[in-house]
Amino acid sequence: MAKDPLQKTKEEYAHLLEKLSSADSPVGIDAQYTHAVIIDYLQQILHRIEKLEQAVADKA
Asked: Does residue 11 form part of some domain?
């Protein structure tokens, strides 16, 4: 199973952070890191769903 997104460092999210960066954001939290974690979770979920769908299709 993939690494827990909350256990990853900012460096491991560099590719996502580059896409999400905004110097104009006055948010009180680390919005880039937060979004990177959420996107990583969603990508993991999508991958698991795709595997399940393929397994079902293979049995049909």
From this structure: yes
- Nearest-CA neighbor of 40 among 1, 9, 13? 13
- Count up the domains in the chain and report the number: 1
Report field, pTM of the whole predicted structure over 0.90? no
Instruction: Say yes or no to pLDDT of 21 above 90.
Output: no
Domain boundaries, position 33: 7-16+29-59
In a domain, 1, yes or no: no
Is residue 59 within 8 A of residue 32, CB to CB? The reply is no
Q: Examine the pLDDT at 27 and tell me if it is beyond 80.
A: no
Mean pLDDT of the chain: 86
Q: How far is CA 58 from CA 11, 48, 51, 53, in A?
A: 38, 15, 10, 9
Contact 17, 33 (CB under 8 A): yes
